[in-house]
Amino acid sequence: MGMPDESADSHYDEGLTAGMRGELSEAVNHFREAIHLDKSFSAAYHQLGKCYARAGKHEKAVEVLREVVKNRPRQMPARIDLAHALGLAGHGDEARNQLKQVLALEPSNAKALLEFARVEFYQGEWAAALAQAQAALTQGATNFGVLYLLGRAAKLAGDSDLAGRTFAKAADLIEKTLDIDEERPEGSYLQGELAFVQEQYDKALDHYRVAEERAQMGRSYLAYGEDFTMKDVLGKQGLCYQRLGQADDARKMGDRIGAFAPSDKLGKVLRETPSTE
Description:
By secondary structure, the protein is an all-alpha fold. It is 73% helix and 3% strand. The radius of gyration is 20 Å and the shape is globular.
């Protein structure tokens, strides 16, 4: 059934609302319909590309966002989002090139600096990721996303003291998030991520279990640049069980993932967890 006000703008607004709810398939449908009704609707193309990136369809996201940047070359947020999709798709050099173009015009763009850090991190360049994350922090990006990335990069670059201090600051921010809305899964999931990266697997498992209780199947969640779904929550629990030597529980998590995502790589790895006996 069509919407009462069947227009490109109304579909765009509905797409934004669906995206905020984490209903990505619905959001994609609305943005595609907005584009069908108005082929020049640049903002709808931009949001469509972001939805594809959140849904793990990275090459599709790259394809759409490339067109946005081509048609709106001075639209810096779209260029940064293209770099994000390129990084996720493994196109590190092209992602860096996009971000260099942003920073040539806006050297203090904290979002671009943080995305540069993410690209370097995806490529395994820990020292470069650390430097870019520190630059983003200097420019005022003090949210969980930059602290979490800075802490991970510092840990992998061998600076355990910096990593510990940074993770502590990130934990304080998440406590504030939980105070705002403790019924949502984002805060608990991110607490799990912090504990996991610090190899506190029992603690991480507790947080992931709480996130599972609060999350809904079929929804995507986004907080401070970190995306996750129920599949990620279950997968992280399975990895905790692996690290703790609880092979049977790890395989059970793999089975749960396989029930709704049989081709998922992590689910398959968990199902094949060898016995520790």
